[in-house]
Amino acid sequence: MEVDFPRGKGSQKRDKKATARKPVKRKREKNLFMTEKSRPKSKKRKISKVEEDDGKKHKIQGTVDTHISNKIEPFTIKSVCPGMVLLGCISEIKDYKLIITLSNNIKGVVAITEISDAYTNKLQQLADGQITEEEEVYGLSEMFEVGMIVCCKIADNKYNINKKILDLTLNPRLVHENKTAKCLKNNMLICGSVVSEEDHGYLVDIGIQQTTGFLSKKYTQTYIATMCEGDSLMVGELVWCHVEIKDEQELLSDSIHTIYLNIQPDIISKTMIEVDRPITYYNLVPGLNVTGIVKKSSEYGIVVRVGNKFCVIHSTHVNGSHEDFKEDQKIPVKILYIHPESKTVYATTLPHLLYYNGTTLDNKFNEFTVGDIVKNAVVCETSKKGIYLKLTHGITGFAQKGHLSDSTVEKISEQFPIGSKQRCRVIGFSPIDNFIMLSLKQSILNRDFIKIRDIVPGSLFKVEVKYVKDTVIGVKIGDLKGIIPALHMADVPLKTPQKLFNEGDELDCRVLSVDMKDNKVTLTNKKSLVNTTLPIVHDTSQIHKHLELEGFIVMMNDKGVLVAFYNNVKGWVPISELTEERIEHPDKVFYIGQVVRCRVINYDEESKKIILSLKKGTRQREPRKRQISVSDQFEAGKIIECRIKIKRRDVFIVEDLASSYEAVLYKSHLADFDDLCDLLWEKLQVDDVLKQVIHFSGTNKIVSFTTSVVIMVVSMKPSLLKQTENDIIPRDFSDISVVSMKPSLLKQTENDIIPRDFSDISKDMILPAVVKNIVEYGIFFTLTGGLGGLVPMKVASDNYLSYEDIVEHLHIGQSIVIRITYLDIEKKTFVGSMLTKHCFPNSVNKASLLMESYLDNKDLVYDLLSTSMSCKDIMSKMRSIPVGSVVSTVVNNLDDDGIDSTLSNGLQAHVSTDLTYGKTVMEGDKILGVVLSIDILNNRIELSLDDKVISAMKKTQTEDDVQQLNIHTTISSTILQVNPVYYLVSLRGKALGSMAYVPTKQTINSINDKELFPVHHKLNVKINSVHNENLIALVNYKLMEAQIEKFKEKFVKDKTYLSIGGCYTACIKQIHPSTMELDIEGYTGTIHCADMVDTIENNGYHPFSEYKINDKLKVRVIGFAKKKSEEKIAECVAKPSQLKGKIGKVDKSFPLKSRRNVFIKKIDKEEVCVFLSSKRMGLISKFDLSNDLTALEHVADHFKKGQGYDAEVVGCKGRRKIVLSLLDHREKTVEGETTKCFVNHIDIETNELSVSLPWKYKAIVKVNKNIENYRLGQWFWCDVLTIDKTKRTCTIKLKNSRKEKT
């Protein structure tokens, strides 16, 4: 039998010749498909002949020491070389490829054309249409099962060491290339492919030249029952075969041979070859079971001699401990692979491979899935490649060096000592090695997903930009790749995304779809989708009627719009459901990629057809269709003089002094600017006279608009429009017309350009307008006279803001300027634009004109209030103190907001904390301050304590001095005051002592979606003009926006030691009523009482009550605030819900009847100011504090600063202050009901008490005797007998009991 393993003295000589002829050998390997007959005599054939036995002894190649002198390294991607044949396990089956897991969890892919020649031929016949009806081509999922062991080869022509996934082939002809029948031995295992089914068995291709395998059907029964469910073997199917050779001498001839095969699982698992003679590498095939003799063992593995060859077994493939294996011990091993260059043979003794029966491996990892966290894995072995850990039930895990830590690991054995417990995460399985792949990296432990199949469409992820092109942005999601298509780079289309995105940028994106076949993730960067609060729909099973959700437009025509959601779920919006007013051309209003909010109005489960609507919800009451005639007194554009007759809920009812004609004047129509509207609303009272009022609209054209304005002012949230109906306006006022005091509308009358009818409208007209409503697709507006149109979202702002951003900065009733861009004469509808280039085409100094408009509007407001009976005296005092003058005041109060003081004439003054410039003062001190503005709303003036400015202001400044400043001169300045419309700045340098107004935006249409600069920020401004003795300066607005972004980046980067979102242990340094000062790793931080707890279980609980100075507190940094000097203060939160996961956004919506945590800020005369958050205030009327009258008489004792309460939202005061109640209702003055009241004046002579009731009602109570028993501030329960709503007075009867309401 020695003839089968040829060796001899001549082999070395011929090996040298073969070495010299290597180029010839490589040249021949390029032609892999030549038949034996067509091949000329080659040198390779001569090389194979020298392997024939010469009847002499063979030397054992290598020594034990050469194999064990170095550590036995595991299989890695660097071990791979082209042409290598090795064992793998099928881990995933797809339509056109197999995913193979090799040793050490290295992945490979087998294309459908690399299974076998027989299967490829079948596929070709199918493509050519040559397959008959009786024939059938099976798919990969029918031929293979996950867990099957296969013998594969690394494709020579596709090998790339830099690829993480290898290209493999299972084709037996390529796997066993260059092998001849002489390599076959009795009882060996070999992998073959079924070629055809015959009467009594199957022909099997084993890839050996001139050799065919025959598999009798009687040897397939058990296998077919197990793997094929009783069906026959399929053409192309791979099977492990046991070779049965009766006479091995026959294989030495050159004729075609037929060998007999057996695939019975019990035979396959027991197959073993006793090797007691010299062999060649051609005899060692991966998958072959042989006996070997142990020559040496160590902690790195075992060296075994098989015949005259040495095999190495890595420690991970040793069954048990290496100490169990003794020298010269005979053991069974299975060949894993042979390195073709080093000729090193790698084997295994693991039972699941050694006794593999040809079917599927048992899954020992059932209790684990990819992504699982393992808390107490024990390190059992370390190497320079990684560490091995023991998990539960004896399962082993392996963590490669690159997965041990996010930082570089220098000494693995020291950082991960044997026996230490580690927290790790499952990232994969290696069935060949019988262990789990683990990662100890914190970034992977914190990740939301591991594999692409774990990603759910709609999920939110932070991604890193890898490259930016015009049509796509490539991103990295963990270890996966993703793309952001051009349509989803932003809420609006971008022409040059390279200007907005850079490599390395981090973005918050939402997953649109996951393509498992192509391993591709598509994401959206549209902020309106990323930040949505509506349900995320990625499957039609989630759809139901009335569901509200957000999607994006992907197609539109004259019949409607197609809206897409996540995972390619789509719905259709018919043209009738696009807007409240029918439109004929959707492309005039919408654009591809636009995000819209829609509602499901119909869903067919069978056809999966979804019908949507962009209109408001069906719960909204349909407006009553009734004919309302316009009063004869109404004349669009007419200017009248009015008297305020009724004031209620942001609505004035005014009366024309000339004709007694009544009209509605809404709060939003008092001025062009919001702060001036708030001021007039608070100060104007019944019987005040308004001299300049314009007829704006007749009721029949503005019913829905007037209702919307009131709803908007009360709720501040468009989403609440559908919750409120026409009951806000009393029925007896619903038929009267609307008037306005907006200067922009009054100015129209000068040029007589008021469109009273549709015929007065023409294209390209530029007109002032008022916002009527804001919807996802545009802004509805109303012109003077009542005509209305639409501004589509795509032309609503210069910087292409989303619906959410528009709603946040624009409100119903706001003044705008529009340009008519489209007219539909038949439908009598028109479309407008708010873009700057359309509405202000010839304006050079647009921002200067806006500032002049504001100052003029403010002067009109001051003039009006100077004539108001309620403000006349204080306005006279305040206007006598010009802005920029230096005044002396006496300090009377110090708190977190700053310094309160009093002037010699009795006026109150206030210095905010930012403008104290570090001065330390005490109550009673006299201080000098420069006047910044007069705050009529709070009846005080605002001061700054900047010594440099005060010193300069003391010098006499005349108008001539101001005029001496050269126009267009660029001067440095410092911001003293910030208003949404302007910055008040103090000029520096030679202009020190002068102040200027710098507009924050260019036009009244501009929307500031950027954060404004804070107080003390320095700006370079250019003096533009002098308007009514006020300096107006301008900045480069594009440069300013860039500076704002740079400032925000610097603001955070300056404190890289404390990262936003990072959690730290802080030490408490100071405790104030509403804030605590912290020390965070040596840096200053602050935390507000509103950021301490999620819920308040006991009313009156103070979040700081459990802490004292030097206590430790776990906090999370949510931002930075710049205080005096250049130090930045870390703003922190300690709410348990905010210490983990994403930093929650501040809730800016306050729906009526919703519950909120509030914390006492300060107590005023009639109300209590509370914190809703560290930056948002609210008000609670004293009537709504408690039903305990004793507590109300001693409010300061029962309600202390910083105490927390659970309150209910009951309304709104202005646009910023939320009104709340600590009761389960809002105390009201209602005729016939019982309410609270308190004494505000006692007239001893007449024995009368003047009392105040809820909602600013007054009453006089006659006391018959013992009036000395009553005192100011005393509270009573009373019965309301009658009410005079016009005079806000009532008659009441005091109740005898003060204990409770009855």
Automatic annotation (TrEMBL):
GO cellular component terms listed in the entry, alphabetical order: small-subunit processome
Domain S1 motif: 83-171, 287-350, 371-441, 458-526, 546-615, 764-835
Key words of the record: Nucleus, Repeat
A GO term for molecular function: RNA binding
Name assigned to this protein: S1 motif domain-containing protein
Annotated GO biological process: rRNA processing
PROSITE patterns: S1
Species: Lottia gigantea (Giant owl limpet)
Taxonomy of the source species: Eukaryota, Metazoa, Spiralia, Lophotrochozoa, Mollusca
Superkingdom, natural source: Eukaryota
InterPro entries from the UniProt entry: NA-bd_OB-fold, Rrp5, Rrp5_OB_4th, Rrp5_S1_rpt_hs1_sc1, S1_domain
Record's compositionally biased regions (Basic residues): 10-29
